[in-house]
Write a structure and sequence with these properties.
This protein is of the alpha/beta class. It is built from 18 helices and 16 strands. Mean pLDDT is about 90; it is low at about 520-525. The chain binds zinc ion (ZN).
Length: about 525
C-alpha cells in the first residue's frame, strides 16, 4: 500500500485560531497524543527567544517519542543578509529539531506589493536558505506560500520557486493554498502540473486552508494527483475558517482511498485523540464533526434503525469502530421498538414486550409536550428504567421554595429552602446561590450528600434554556437541557415546564439520579 505522510501543524497554524492558547506543557501533551496516533511530522512553531517557546523546545528536546519528528518552522532569510548572518535562520538551525520547515514567497503579487524583492532575488533567497539549513544537518521541507494563487498568475515562476528549493536540497516541497481560495479542480490541475514537472526530483506536499469549505476535499484532490505529504491541523483549527482537518483527511485516505498513514490500531484511537485535543484547547467537541462527532453515526427513526441492524452499510459510510467512534440510536417520536430495545440493552435493562409498548407511548406523549431526548439520553434512560421497573429515586421531595431579592443598591440575593426525605429521614436545608437554579442545586446537594458522597464529584457543565412556542395549546413552555460530568462520564438531561424553575429542577434531579442508578460492573453508587 502506498504511503501518505501526515504533517501536523496544530501547534503553529492551529494556534492562530480565535481563542486558542496552550501552555508549553499542554503543547507537549498534544505532541505525545499525535505521536501515539502515528503522525510522523509534528510542527512545533518557531523556536524564538520568548520564554514560552524556549520552554517548549526544551521540553520537546527531552521527550522520547515513538516515531514523530519535530519540525521547527521559519522563513527564508531576509533580503540583503547572508543566511549565516540571519538571526532567525540561525535560531532554526541551532534548535534540536531535526526538520526545518521554511516558508517562502511564490507569488509575484506578494513580491511586488509586500516584500519588494525582485523575482531573481527571491529565487536566490529560497535556494540559499534551504542550502544553509541542509549544510547545518537539517532535513528541509519547503512551504511554498500562496502557491496556487501564484501558479494561476504565473505558473512558470511558481515552478521556478519550487526548483530553487529543490536545488537547495529540500526533501519536500509543499504547495500552500494560504488564502484558502482554491476549489478542488484548481488544486488538481496545479498539483498534477507540479508532479509532472518535478515528481522525479522531490516529494510534493499539500497545505490548504478551509476558507472555501474545501480544505479536506482539496487535500484529497492533491493526493489523488500525486502529493504524498498532507499538512493540516487536528479538528481543523486555524485562523479564519481553519486549516485542512486531519481528523477527516486521515480516515478518508486510509479507509476510502487505499493509502497507508497509520496502523489500524492507531486509526482506532482517532475519536479519542480528537476529543482529547479539543479538551486541552478548551473547545467543545463538535457533535456533528465527520467521523468522530457524537452524531457522526447517530440514527433516528425506526426505519434507519431497522436498516443498520439488518446491515450497517445501509445507512453508514464506514464502520464507526474503525475510527474509535460508535453507533448511537437517538430516541425520538419516529422511533420504533428497535430503538427502545437497543437503548434498553445499552443500559443493561430487561424491559420486556409490555414495557416497550409503554415506553413508546410515554415517549410520544412527552415529545408532544416539548421533551426532546436526542440531547438528553440520561433522561431517556430514566424513562426506560421507570417502565422496566428498575428505577430507584434518590430522595422524596416534600417541598422547596426559592426566593430572589433585588435591593436598591443593585445587589441580588437568592436563597433556596428544601425539605426532602432521604433514607427514611426528613431533612431541611437552606442554601444561597448566584441564581435560583444554583441555590436549589446547592440546597439539594446539602440535603442528600451525606447519603451519596459521590455527589461531590458531579459537576453541572452546561445549562441551556429554550422557550418553545411550539407547544400544543398550553402557551409557551420552557425547555432546560443540562449537561453533567463526574470527571469520567458525561451525560445530558432535560426538563420541560411552563415554569423555568420547575423545568430546571426536573433536569437537575434527572442528572443526579442518573449518576446513581445501579449498573453492571459499576460502583458509582
Ligand atoms: Zn497555513
Amino acid at each position: 500500500m502506498e504511503q501518505v505522510t501526515l504533517y501536523d501543524t496544530t501547534l503553529r497554524d492551529g494556534m492562530q485560531g480565535e481563542g486558542m492558547s496552550l501552555s508549553a506543557a499542554e503543547k507537549v501533551r498534544v505532541v505525545r497524543a499525535l505521536d501515539a496516533l502515528g503522525v510522523p511530522l509534528v510542527e512545533a512553531g518557531f523556536p524564538s527567544s520568548n520564554p514560552k517557546e524556549v520552554e517548549l523546545f526544551e521540553l520537546l528536546s527531552e521527550l522520547e517519542l515513538e516515531q514523530a519528528a519535530i519540525c521547527a518552522f521559519g522563513m527564508t532569510h531576509r533580503r540583503g543578509v547572508a543566511p549565516g548572518d540571519d538571526p532567525a535562520l540561525l535560531t532554526l538551525v541551532e534548535s534540536f529539531a531535526p526538520v526545518v520547515t521554511l516558508v517562502g514567497k511564490t507569488w509575484g503579487l506578494h513580491l511586488e506589493k509586500v516584500t519588494r524583492v525582485s523575482r531573481e532575488e527571491n529565487l536566490a533567497m529560497i535556494r540559499d536558505s534551504v542550502a544553509f539549513c541542509r549544510e547545518q544537518g537539517k532535513r528541509v521541507i519547503y512551504d511554498a506560500e500562496h502557491f496556487f494563487d501564484g501558479f494561476r498568475d504565473d505558473s512558470r515562476y511558481a515552478l521556478e520557486c519550487l526548483g530553487a528549493a529543490i536545488d537547495g536540497g529540500a526533501e519536500n516541497v509543499t504547495l500552500c493554498d494560504t488564502n484558502g481560495s482554491s476549489l478542488p479542480d484548481q488544486i488538481s490541475d496545479a498539483t498534477a502540473s507540479v508532479v509532472t514537472a518535478l515528481g522525479e526530483r522531490v516529494e510534493v506536499g499539500i497545505h490548504v486552508h478551509d476558507d472555501a469549505g474545501c480544505g479536506v476535499a482539496n487535500s484529497l484532490a492533491a493526493v489523488r494527483e500525486g502529493a504524498r505529504l498532507v499538512q493540516g491541523t487536528i479538528n481543523g483549527y486555524g485562523e479564519r475558517c481553519g486549516n485542512a482537518n486531519l481528523v477527516s483527511v486521515l480516515p478518508a485516505l486510509q479507509l476510502k482511498m487505499g493509502f497507508r498513514c497509520v496502523t489500524d490500531k492507531q486509526l482506532d484511537s482517532l475519536t479519542e485523540t480528537a476529543h482529547f485535543i479539543d479538551e486541552l484547547c478548551n473547545v467543545t467537541p463538535n457533535p456533528d464533526q465527520p467521523y468522530v462527532g457524537r452524531n457522526a453515526f447517530a440514527h433516528k427513526g425506526g426505519m434507519h434503525v431497522a436498516g443498520v441492524e439488518a446491515d450497517a452499510r445501509t445507512f453508514e459510510h464506514i464502520d464507526p469502530g474503525a475510527v474509535g467512534n460508535q453507533r448511537t440510536i437517538l430516541p425520538s417520536e419516529l422511533s420504533g421498538k428497535a430503538t427502545i430495545r437497543s437503548q434498553a440493552q445499552q443500559a443493561g435493562l430487561e424491559i420486556g414486550a409490555e414495557g416497550e409498548e409503554r415506553a413508546i407511548e410515554r415517549l410520544k406523549e412527552r415529545e408532544h409536550h416539548g421533551y426532546h431526548y436526542e440531547a438528553a439520553p440520561a433522561s431517556f434512560e430514566l424513562l426506560l428504567r421507570r417502565e422496566a421497573g428498575s428505577y430507584e429515586p434518590l430522595f422524596e421531595l416534600e417541598s422547596f421554595r426559592v426566593t430572589t431579592e433585588k435591593r436598591a443598591d443593585g445587589r441580588v440575593e437568592t436563597e433556596a429552602t428544601i425539605k426532602v426525605k432521604v433514607g427514611g429521614e426528613r431533612c431541611v436545608q437552606v442554601a444561597e446561590g448566584n441564581g435560583p437554579v444554583n441555590a436549589l442545586d446547592s440546597a439539594l446537594r446539602a440535603a442528600i450528600v451525606g447519603r451519596y458522597p459521590h455527589l461531590a464529584d458531579i459537576e453541572l457543565t452546561n445549562y441551556k434554556v429554550r422557550i418553545l412556542d411550539e407547544s400544543h395549546g398550553t402557551g409557551a413552555v420552557t425547555r432546560v437541557l443540562l449537561d453533567s460530568s463526574d470527571g469520567e462520564r458525561e451525560w445530558g438531561t432535560i426538563g420541560v415546564s411552563e415554569n423555568i424553575i420547575e423545568a430546571s429542577w426536573e433536569a437537575l434531579v434527572d442528572s443526579l439520579e442518573y449518576a446513581f442508578q445501579p449498573r453492571d460492573g459499576d460502583t458509582a453508587g
